[in-house]
Fold this sequence. Notes:
Elements lengths: L2 E2 L4 H9 L6 H16 L2 E2 L18 H7 L15
Antiparallel strand pairs: 1-2
Amino acid sequence: MQVLINIDESVYKRIRRDNYDGKPKQAEDDLTDLLIALDFGKPLPKGHGRLFDERDIVNGNYEVIGNRIYELEPIIEADKESE
């Protein structure tokens, strides 16, 4: 399952940096922050295609979009389970 979450950058950096040895309260706080983010997250549907930043493709010229879409770097790869 893939879930899109919005998490404060400071929380993300703290979680990535922390070493929880002997710090159960801090680990509990980080877990709480992650659970809150997941609660408000958006599950991505099974079989979704590659997800892009619309600013990379907004041009108004569909022929250009059709030719460029495979050259764009996706933010999230397609769900391979359904391909």
